[in-house]
Amino acid sequence: SWTEVDAGWRYVSWISNGLMYVAHSQFGFWGLTLLQAMLYMGVVGLYLHLASHRRGRIDPLDLLLVSVVFLSMKASAVHPKPEMFTIFYFATAVWIYVRARETGVDRFWLLVPLYWLWVNSHGAVLIGFLLIGVLLAGETIARWVGTGLPTRSYRRLWIFGSLAIAVTALNPAGPQMIVDWVRTMLTYTETNETMRIDALSSRWDSLLPTSVFGAVKATAGWLLITMFVAQVGGFLLRLRRREPIDPSIALASLVFFVFAMQMARGGLYYPLLFLMTIGLASGPKTLPLALPSRAPVPSGIALAGLALLSIGLHFTAVAPLRWGGQGH
């Protein structure tokens, strides 16, 4: 990780660093690449599991959606480092929620071990706090309009969501580390130094590219906007059909989209949320990927190749800099 660790900023990542050490010591850089591929393919597997359960099959067009999602994440330049574990953990947390919504059988207790793994792998477990908070707020609103989780599952989300946050205190640095992180985030102010950090820059400022890497960031920004517009369109179509809008997904999508556009590194999470919740947000009648007919086999092969290319390029996110003569 590039995060400096000292007395003023404690940072715990022994699980992710341990696995990365083993992978690198045994197989070198390709070991790290394989570990990253396993985590990202795990995300794809979670989505395809939802898609197959929802429609009884996996459509090749699902792979097009996967491609769009990973291309939008690519500009965040996630190298083989602890952050790649956060991508898998975040997607898994959303998957647990969506499965409960779609099947009526919740497994919210899984959030507790998941968040323990998360806090001991990467500091972005704070994003997990935000996710639980937004989902609980959305589900509370949903109860007023007669949608959302059943009463029992709603209570279990509160119980196990709270326990998941509490269990993050079980780390080598203790609960004070979490308190310090939250305090730092709440008191964060932009300085001349932080303004130069690309991960903290605004996506709104990069929609018009001025360089090779700028084109990568602009592509990510426009893909984020396209996904959000598609979601809003799905919500409007539901209203037109006199179907209720899902408050939890609407609120979560708004919060994480704004986060993604305000801070480049936040662009990792909205695409994953979009991928996992697209069925709940739009409904099977709206979802473009829920077509009655299958895509032709050649198209499916081409889309599979595009998906693999999109995920593969994610491993070498700085390669365009070298190709464009702007490497560092």
Give a summary of the structure in a few sentences.
The chain has 328 residues and is mainly α. It has 14 helices and no strands.
Tell me what the structure shows:
With 328 residues, the protein is an all-alpha fold. The chain is built from 14 helices and no strands. The chain has helices at 14-27, 29-55, 61-74, 83-103, 111-119, 125-145, 151-167, 175-186, 192-195, 212-240, 247-262, 269-282, 297-313, 319-323. The longest helix is centred in the last third of the chain and has 29 residues, at 212-240. It starts with 13 loop residues before the first helix and ends in a 5-residue tail after the last helix. Residues 285-293 and 315-328 have low confidence and may be disordered.
Keywords:
328 residues, mainly alpha
Number of strands: 0
Q: Tell me, rounded to a whole number, the average pLDDT.
A: 83
Residues in helices, as a percent range: 55-70%
**Strand content of the residues, in percent?**
under 5%
What is the number of helices? 14
End-to-end C-alpha gap: 17 Å
The profile of the biggest β sheet is:
none
**pLDDT under 50 segments (min length 5)?**
285-293, 315-328
How does the overall form come out from the CA principal axes? globular
Strand-pairing-aware structural class: mainly alpha
Computed over alpha carbons, the radius of gyration is: 20 Å
Order of helices and strands: HHHHHHHHHHHHHH
Topology diagram in text:
Blueprint (H helix, E strand, L loop, with lengths): L13 H14 L1 H27 L5 H14 L8 H21 L7 H9 L5 H21 L5 H17 L7 H12 L5 H4 L16 H29 L6 H16 L6 H14 L14 H17 L5 H5 L5
Helix pairs in contact: 1-2, 2-4, 2-12, 3-10, 3-12, 3-13, 4-5, 4-6, 4-12, 5-7, 6-7, 6-11, 10-11, 10-12, 11-12
